[in-house]
Each structure stands twice: as C-alpha cells, then as structure tokens.
Design brief:
single chain; 218 residues; alpha/beta; 8-stranded parallel beta sheet; 8 helices; 20% strand; globular
Amino acid sequence: MRIAPSILAADLADLAQGLSLCERGGAELVHVDVMDGHFVPNLSFGPPVVAAMARRTRLPLDVHLMVANPDRLLADYLKAGAKRVAVHWEATLHLDQTLGRIRQAGAEAGVAINPATPLEILGETLPVVDFVVVMSVNPGFSGQEFIPRCLDKVARLSQWVRREGLAVDITIDGGVGPGNIRALVEAGATTFVVGSALFGSADPVATIAELKRRGEGS
C-alpha cells in the first residue's frame, strides 16, 4: 500500500513544510489536485507551483488534473515535474491519445472516474492505463465524507484487474482515513490519497504511520 498525502489539504502558505511532513512520515507520493474552476468549482495549483514543489521534495508528484480539456495543459504539468498524471474520463475527449502523451513523456498515465461514473466505461481503457483513480467524493473540495458505495466499486474494479491479469494500480481518492483504510485495502485499493484526515490531524507524521498500521491490519 502507498500513502499519497493530498497537498491541497496542507497549509497553503507553507507548502515546503507540508512536503517535509510527507517525507518524514514515509509517504510514497505527494498528490497534487489541479482544479480549473470549470470542470470543478474551485481553483488550485498552476504549473509554476508544481515545478516549485518538484524542486523541494524527493517524492514523486502525483498530479490529478481535475480540469476541462486536459490536453491543453498536459505538456506544462509534465514539464513541471509530474511523475504520475491522471485525467478524468468525464473531461477528456480523446482519452487514448492523452494517455499516450503522458506515457511518451515518461510519466505514469491514469484515468480518474467520478462517483456516479460506472466502471464499465473503462472497458477499452483499462488495458492501457497504469492506474485508475476511483473518486470516493465528488471532486472539487477537500474535507468531504467518503461515499460508502465506492467501497464496492473498488472491490469490483480489483476483481476485474485480477481477472484480466493487468498490472493496474487502484487509487482511492476522497474521505480516506484511519477508520476506513483497512476496508479499502481489503477491497483491493493499493494507493490511498489522504487529505484532511492527515493534515488536519495534530501530528501528520504520526498519522501516516497510523494509516499504514491500520491498512496492514496491525
């Protein structure tokens, strides 16, 4: 299992400290939510901020493009240092082509799906992605509660991946915390985006360790 703290939930006036907490806690990735005010009703990190973060951390940046027409921004975020990039199925016109561009740049290519989007739409896409982001909240804001039906969605996706013999990482994003991480591991999730439950805790470094302990069932 891999913990990917969502830097959007950190102190935005001190991102360097947030990145340091991720490293000290033993996180494997830093999740970067990019919002454009169109696909989701909020705005966040542009390419210069992502480039600055890439210079301040040894952890790979896991960039989640919650934007309309991600192709127009893709090159900028890849150049800024994104090592994993997820685009939304709901926002990408030529998904296969977009995923190919990500991989050609040397980054891992992923597709994200919203809570109301059925898994079945991934039929032609699953064999050509490195990871799938299952959104367990509606994208756009941190601090939302986990949508319970998404647990079954993760389980069904995990069964599908195993049945097809694919090497696809299943990332769960939204409302993840100590109270549900074990159930998500058992359902088949492998990467866990954690925002408010981590940076809103008294000790984010200790919380990362707690998440790993609970996820491993210890």
